[in-house]
Fold:
Amino acid sequence: MASITEIAKRANVSTMTVSNVINKKYQKVSSSTRERVEKVIEEMNYVPNLSARSLKSNNSKIIVFAIPQTIVDDPNKDSAFTNPFYGELINSIEFHLREKGYYLMFRFVNDDERLSSMVKTWSVDGVIVLGALEKELSTIFADIHVPLILIDTYIDSPEYDCITTEDEAGGRMATEYLLDHGYRKLGMVASSIGETGVAQKRYQGYRDALASRGMRFEESMLFEGFPSYEFGIEVASRIAKRKDEFDAMFVYSDLVAIGLINGLKNQGIRVPQDIAVIGFDGLFIGELCEPRLTTIKQDIGAKGQKAVELLVRKLNRDSEGVENIVLPVTIVERDSVV
Structure:
């Protein structure tokens, strides 16, 4: 196989220039030189030795993206990717890491694991974590001595860099939207609100909106369960037994909301004529259900991009102190609310 020295000789450049092109340090190379070097690399079928590069530079260009799966008895652990939210976020993270010259390693983790072992074994450069609970930072994610970026994680600590969405404001926006459209018997569907996280924040927005309009919250209006399409179906069967008690539902995720809509239809309950439904996430599948889902939209692609950009700043030591980035939400009006 060709060496960097041979590539440099044929391209009539220095070995440092070839190294800069291979490592995507394009700011150090003119566009014409870069094109010439890349053409020679292709002609000579050069493939970088990542192991050797890692040993020499003390970095692997590997970034781990980890998602905790610690919900007790979650029946959907082996089918998590049925939720398109994961696909959209991973697509964004991988794309922007690739642009920066990094490689993505993905892992679901549980209570029995310590991610630090994986980080050491693979000489990982950095870690991105989605939806961690505070207690997991002292167990699963303890002793990680590389830059760590948290997504959708709410913790009472000044130590961690975080990317979040206006979850509480979005919950309030969804509830106010239903109230403004004349609905008064508003239920909510969420995963567990007992832990500080996305579901709890969106639930708090729902509670705040009711209180601001002088409306009383009833515990019987809240449905908690697993974050899945199947749970939406299950909630629909429970609502059908009490259908006169509801005229609208705020569902904390689009996937669950679509399950709820289809479940209600199976029970002979019309959406939105009998019960309106609003979701949260802005997933593309909201356009595909019938009726099309009205939802609070977060920019999932931007969330992945911001996480990568923040991680790279940390890796390059271009960021001083802790950064907390909060992304805005908007409402997407479709057909499941009238």
Q: What stands out?
A: Residues 62-165+300-327 form a domain with the Rossmann fold fold (CATH 3.40.50.2300).
